Structures are given as structure tokens and as C-alpha cells.
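Q: What would this chain look like folded?
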Amino acid sequence: MSDIANVDGKVLVSQRVRSYVGGGSPLKYGLFHRECRAGGTMKARIQEMLQTFHGQSAHRPAEPAPAARRAAQGQPLPYEKLLREKDREIDRLRHQLANAEARLQEVMGQDLLTSLPNRHIFKEHLTHSLKRALRLGYSLSLMLIDIDHLREINLKYGHEVGDQVLVEVSKILKSSVREIDMPARWGGEELVTVLHETDADGASVVAERVRRRISMLEIKEPKTGKPIKITASLAVACYPQHSNDPQGLLEAASEALIQCKEDGCNRVLIANK
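A: My prediction, written as C-alpha cells:
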């Protein structure tokens, strides 16, 4: 089918416009063709068709944005995923920082919770102290302290209460010995002290004083405010009575502490010869 032309042969409507107007209908095309032949205003007709076309396009529903479409489908948005990734990264960095602080405290020789010297520093101090005692010929005692039932306290009242007990017992120990002595955190619920120029009898007196003060300690339940009973078991080993090397003294005190626990806790026991 050819393009529509006027009597002068000039093309008035292209095949595309004809297809749109008639929509493939010979009837509609024929009506349009006759109108054009009759001298109708072609420009006005084309403008009318374009306005109709644009009006139909304006009424089409807008496509939802990709983010809105994902939200409607329950899929995570890109920024939500990014936030979760950043949160995980922050948690990882915090964990690394905590580990670095713990390592720094270890290098510095201080227990983070009790502010007492740590196990590593204490072992070095015990070795040097024994060498000095051997050289100068004086007595030296090692006092090992175990807080009774601390694990049960942690389980029943929470680790914050258990930490509070450790801190308060550490304060008692530090204030019960001389400045030349060295209290330290041995690990877990155990504390330890080197008593310089002190034999078994003198160390026993110090241990009993510490035990009594711990038994008078007032720690209250967080919810009810009721007092929690706190006790400790203490063991003493001495140079030269029990051993003349650090490991031997620690083993003698540890064995005495085990026996003290088996005997019922909340007591002082001197190691066997």
C-alpha cells in the first residue's frame, strides 16, 4: 500500500502514520484517506494523533526502582548489606584491639582485672628471690590462695560478681603483706605471694590473717542484696624446708592446697616436709 499523497503528488502521511491510524484496519485507513483527499487539515490531524499517543504513554504505570522492587520482594537493599559488613568489620577490629591490650598487659607484667603482677612476672620474681635467699641464707615462703567455689559463684550470680570477688580478695592480699613481698595473680581463682625472710610459722600467721579477712568480705547478690559467703583456702611452702627451687616450692604448695580443699576449704595448711 503506497503513502498518502495529495493531488500534486506530495506525500502527506507515511506508512508508519498510516499503520498507527488504521492499526491495520482498511476501514479506518479508508476514512482517513478520504478525509485527506477532501482537503482536511493534515497538520491538525497529525497533531491530534501525536497528542493521543502521548496521552496513552502518560497513563502507563511507572516501573518501580530496583531498590524498591527488592524491598517489596523481601530482598536486602545494597546499603543494608554494606552496613552489616561494616558492623562485622567493627566487631573484628574490637576483638583485635582487646587481644592487643591483653598482650600489652602481659608484656607490661600486669593482670588486667586485679592490677596485680601476672604469672609470668611472678615466676621470674620467685626465681630471683630464691637465688638471693640461697646466697644470703635466709628463709623464703610461698603462699598460694584459692578462692573457694568461685566457679559456682560465676554460674549462679554471673561473672561480674565473680570478678568483683577476685578484685576484693586481691585488695585484701595486697594490704595484708609488706611492700617487700610480692602478691600476684596466678590464674583463674588462684593468687600467690612471695614472703621474703619468712619461715613456715611466720607465713602461717600471714595466711591465717588473710583467710580471716576474706571470710569477713561483704559481697551482695545483685538481685536480692543478700550477702554472698566468700571463703578461701591457703597453702604455704617454704625454702629451705620444702624445696630449694621455684618449681619444687610451687608443687609443694599446690599439693597442700589440694589437700586443703579435700579437708573442707576455708583453712590454712602448711606443706608436708
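Residues 78-108 form the longest helix (31 residues).
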